[in-house]
Design a protein that fits this description.
TIM Barrel, alpha/beta, Enolase-like, domain 1, about 375 residues, eight-stranded parallel β-sheet, four-stranded antiparallel β-sheet, globular, 14 helices
Length: about 375
């Protein structure tokens, strides 16, 4: 199809300060540093994608993404945008890994394909609106009193699910959860995320058992991801279900974890999986294994989170969503996209494609690269 031939590719650096630092066990983030990709075809269609590189998780930065994206622009120009498998193969042959920037290209390609099909992206992916997407709100790791204050604030704002960042000593992490429970009571479900913060299997098991009385729904990535062979031991001895996050990047990781019976749940992120193309493979494997899954993200704006929300509607086994980071921004650079309703409920756009674009006023002042 000549009209769907890729004519030009644009890259933009998108910087947005946060209302306050977002802190996990791997370190703090003060300013969002993302990359926006716009792919234009000969028939005038434009597909938008975004990635949020996380140096301590996927080993990419806004600068590496910006440079590697220029390599991708050179190999993708002239290709059929609707042949997503071919485009993904071209990027994989260009450079290994770099899943964050690959995800931005993948999202833009799927946006184009869904627009050409005349369907909202979730329908293009085979999904339907038969469930409510309701995001949690995340409490950064820190002083127990501050974490309690944040949890109380989120509860008062109406959020019905609260996620808590942990990953310190047993004594401190128990103090943190105890303080939060003292502030919000026992009825609100808590989800915890250690971000690999407990250094050994024994330490993780000890902390998880100490947290058992606090009504915890699940725990993400309790131990360093390279200890994946030990994750089954943690899962077997933990009273709290274990969700693989950093150790589950692509479909090969997912298959390995399933074979090992390493965990009960997956957290799928487009920025880890290189986009929809591989994320769908992870979800299919998880569903076949009877797993509950979550869709999360890094520090994407409503553009990237809109993509994640479309994906969350594509598989019946995706039960949880973690789409709160745009609520932490000091500015909203996105037109269209998901809307946040009461109690953290997410409304997904019904227009063909992704349904979200970046306001031109932000792109005009951004550092950019255009390959035409």
């Amino acid at each position: 199809m000549a009209g769907t031939t890729i004519q030009s590719i644009e890259l933009y650096k998108l910087f947005v300060p946060l209302k306050e630092p977002f802190v996990i066990s791997l370190g703090p983030i003060n300013t969002v540093q993302n990359v926006v990709v716009i792919i234009r075809t000969q028939d005038g269609c434009a597909g938008y994608g975004e990635c949020s590189p996380y140096m301590t998780i996927n080993g990419e930065s806004v600068d590496t993404c910006f440079i590697v994206g220029q390599y991708f622009a050179q190999v993708l120009k002239g290709k059929n945008a609707l042949n997503i498998a071919d485009c993904m193969q071209a990027m994989d042959k260009t450079i290994y890994a770099n899943c964050s920037i690959k995800s931005a290209f993948d999202i833009a390609l799927h946006d184009i394909a869904a627009q050409h099909s005349g369907l909202p992206l979730y329908q293009f992916l085979g999904g339907k609106k038969d469930k409510v997407l309701q995001t949690d709100m995340t409490v950064s790791i820190g002083d127990p009193a501050k974490m309690q204050q944040d949890a109380v604030k989120f509860r008062e704002q109406g959020f019905e699910f609260i996620k808590v960042k942990l990953g310190g000593t047993k004594e401190m992490d128990v103090q943190r959860i105890a303080a939060i429970r003292e502030g919000i009571g026992n009825d609100v479900p808590l989800r915890i995320d250690a971000n690999q913060g407990w250094p050994t299997t024994e330490a993780a098991i000890e902390v998880l058992n100490a947290l058992a009385p606090f009504n915890i729904e699940h725990c993400e990535e309790p131990i360093p991801r390279w200890r994946f062979m030990e994750l089954r031991q943690v899962s077997d001895q933990s009273p709290i279900p274990i969700m693989a996050d950093e150790s589950c990047g692509d479909e090969h990781d997912a298959e390995r974890l399933i074979q090992l019976n390493a965990c009960q749940m997956f957290n799928i992120k487009l920025g880890k999986a290189s986009g929809f193309y591989r994320a769908q493979k992870i979800a299919k494997l998880g569903a076949q294994a009877g797993m509950e899954m979550q869709v999360g993200g890094f520090m994407e704006s409503r553009l990237g989170m809109t993509a994640a929300a479309h994906f969350a509607l594509s598989n019946d086994h995706i039960h949880h969503v973690d789409f709160d980071t745009p609520l932490m921004f000091t500015e909203d650079p996105i037109i269209g996209g998901i809307q946040y309703l009461d109690k953290g409920v997410i409304e997904v756009p019904e227009v063909p494609g992704l349904g979200a674009v970046v306001d031109d006023s932000y792109l005009q002042k951004a550092e950019k690269f255009i390959y035409a």
